[in-house]
Amino acid sequence: MPVTHTSVDAEAAARLVAFGMRPKQLPARDVVYGELVRRYGEDNAFKALTHSVASGLGLMVLEVTQQAGCVLAATDESVFEIKMDSYARQAKIRERRETEKVLHGLIHLATAALGYPRPDDLANDTYIGRVSVEQVDAMVREAARVLDERAQLAEANNDPLADAPELEQAWRAYARRPAAAATKDGRMAADTTRGMVSRALRFLADQGFLVPVSDEQGGTYRTTPRYQIQVRELAADAAFDDLLALDVVAVAGAGGTLRATASDTLQ
Question: What pLDDT is stored for residue 26 in this prediction?
C-alpha cells in the first residue's frame, strides 16, 4: 500500500529544508528545528518526503544531524546554486575573470584540505579543525612551487604535463601575486593573496562553515559540523586527493593543530 502524506507532513518537511537554508541556524538553538531533525532520523517516510521536497527545489540533502542541522547542496542549474557572480558579490571580489575563479577555487580546496587533512578527521564527528589566512596562503603557495618544479622537470625531459594549461596558469598567477601589502589606511590590500584568502574564509563563515576564533595569523577559524559534511562530499573529488598527494599539509601534535609545511619559509 503506497504511503500517503498529509499537507501537515509536507509543510513540516518544507520547514526542515527551510531551516537548512539558514546556514547559522542550529537545532540546539531552536526547539522546532530540533524536533524536525529528530523526526527525520526516526521516521523513514518523513525522511523520504524531505528529500522529495528538497529535490523539487533543486537541492540535495547531504545529511541531517543534531550537531549540523539539515545540510543541503544545490544541484546543477538550481536557482540556489552559487554562481561565480553571486560569490564575487558576497566575497567582494573585484575581478570575475576565469583565472580569478580558479584562484578562489584553489583557496577553497586548500581550506578544506587544511581543515581535514586525514580521512580519520572526516570520519570523526567530534573532530574540529583550525585554519588561518596565513596557513591557507602558505599551502597554496607551496603547492604552486611543487607543481612548478614538476612542470620544469617535465619540460626538461620533453614530457610536458597533461594538466590543463588554464590550471597551470592559475597556479603561476597565484605565485606571482604578493602575499601581503597594506593600503594607506592599514587594511589588507584586496589584490594580495592573503586578501583573497581572507575574503574567502569570511564567506565560509557567513555560510556557517567556519567560526572566527581570533585575529592571529591574519584571521583564525575553527571548522563546524556543517563544513565537515560538505568536505566529505568534496573529498570524493579527484582534485582534493591530488592536492593532499602533493604532501604540503602536515599535522603537528596529537591535538590536531594544523599547519602548512611552507609556513616557516614565509615568515
Answer: 92
pLDDT in tens, 55-90: 999 999 999 999 999 999 888 777 666 554 555 555
Whether the pLDDT of residue 129 is over 90: the answer is yes
Rounded CA separation 88/82 (Å) = 10
**pTM here?**
0.73
Question: What Å distances lie between residue 191 and 81, 94, 106, 206, CA to CA?
Answer: 26, 9, 16, 21
Task: Taking each helix axis as running N to C, give the angle between helix 98-115 and helix 238-245, from 0 to 180 degrees, rounded to the nearest 10.
Answer: 70
pLDDT at position 159 over 50: yes
Report the percent of the chain where pLDDT is more than 70.
Answer: 66
Question: What span, in angstroms and rounded, lies between the C-alpha atoms of 55 and 77?
Answer: 12
Reduce the secondary structure of the chain to three states and give it as a string. CCCCCCHHHHHHHHHHHHHHCCCCCCHHHCHHHHHHHHHHHHCHHHHHHHHHHHHHCCEEEEEEECCCEEEEEECCCCCCCCCHHHHHHHHCCCCCCHHHHHHHHHHHHHHHHHHCCCHHHHHCCCCCCEEEHHHHHHHHHHHHHHHHHHHHHHHHCCCCCCCCHHHHHHHHHHHHCCCCCECCCCCECCCCHHHHHHHHHHHHHHCCCEEEEECHHHCEEEECHHHHHHHHHHCCCHHHHHHHHCCCEEEECCCCEEEECCHHHHC
Which has more pLDDT, 87 or 204? Answer: 204
pLDDT value at position 211? Answer: 96
> Of how many residues is the chain composed?
267
Does 115 or 90 have the greater pLDDT score?
115
Nearest CA to 18 among 45, 44, 37? 37
